[in-house]
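REQUEST FORM: STRUCTURE PREDICTION
Request ID: SP-0412
Submitted by: Lab K.M.
Chain count: 1
Length (residues): 459
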Amino acid sequence: MKKLWGGRFTQGAAKSVEAFTESISFDKRLAFYDIAGSTAHAKMLAKQGIITQKEAKEIVAGLNQIAKQIASGTFDFKVELEDIHMNIESALTEIYPDSGRKLHTARSRNDQVALDIRLYLRDEAKHIIEKIKHFQNTLMDISEGHLNTIMPGYTHLQRAQPVILSHHLLAYVEMFQRDRERLNDCLKRINTLPLGACAMSGTTLNIDRDYVAKELKFARISENSMDAVSDRDFVIEFISNCSIIMMHLSRVAEELVLWSTGEFSFIEISDAYTTGSSIMPQKKNPDVAELIRGKTGRVYGALMSILTIMKALPLTYNRDMQEDKIPLFDACDTASASLTIITEMFHHINFNATRLRETAGSGFSLATDLAEYLVKKGVPFRAAHEITGNIVKHCLQNGETLEKIPLNAFKSFSESIEEDVYKCLNLDNAVNNKNSKGGTSTIEVKKQIVRLRNLLRKK
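STATUS: Completed
RESULT:
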């Protein structure tokens, strides 16, 4: 098959070269974006008198016909035509030979592919933003149902202080809120029109880039034609954002794995979202959570891949940049699928409130409350810290717990301790006394829920 670029060549490409250089096997997912860009480009060419209105109408009609074929699965993608751009243009010239051959006027595959990726990413970013929002709302719904469920909070994976389960879950809502904000900010840089940069230096033809930007709903146009075709910062930024999203999902997944163990027994994941063992009949494995954790490395790999592809490329376009799509598409697919499945799974997790509360009160988790009690009695914090440490040591040596120590024993450590000490050693009081802004008290958690609900109502 004669190449659309083959005028100066005397010999066709080897089959092995065609197989090695093709991208249609993966960039065909850009088909509808390519058609949208070509449609806007044809209209602009007609508006500027570069082609006739009749030719533009034929081009648009032909592109619509091709779009229907692709949607129905009847379009024949050809490897020898290399990529999605050449496949569509070749099909168009078969429908309208004369008009179709004029579509690529004032355009290069360099600015064309940059446009297609930006159009694709604009949609993908919005879809992922909505999926994050759905997951946030799921966590919010669960949080509202667990305002009275107390659990242990951890530092260094050691029991630290009791918190409300809702407070713990809302910490993830905050993380994903930042993810949404990052993607929305990234969209500002994605939403820049590169079309019109042509190969790398613009064109002598009287094109109207602002018209195309308006047709395709781009907020701005690229200001430097060389940068326009060689820029993949927006791809790197997007995959970087996906990597952070996956890191957050992995942290959630890790806790689900831990919490579902017999050692923790904090949650029970529905059978529908777990798997069994091929040899051990008793096993119930949190494979979905583990796979989310594992797929995080896959997205990190996509980020390293695109950074490595771009790290030493001279201006402007280089064929290396064809390799940007595989990591980009995989990062999009992985982040999207992970958000979907974890949101589903959370609807099928049962929290063991009794076990959570029981564990929250153990391990001297109220020691800090005792130290702060002493501070309120006028004891300097460092002295209060030492006194409390000595009381904990006494308990460990005598097999006692803080709330069971007699008052006279408390007083042997500090005369500042009085009968009211037992109020601060009550689990519910300990949690609900944490009324500092952003703290774990029910009052503060309810405020957090109201604030986050308001944020989630916004785009």
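NOTES: The chain has a mean pLDDT of 95.
Reviewed by: T.R.
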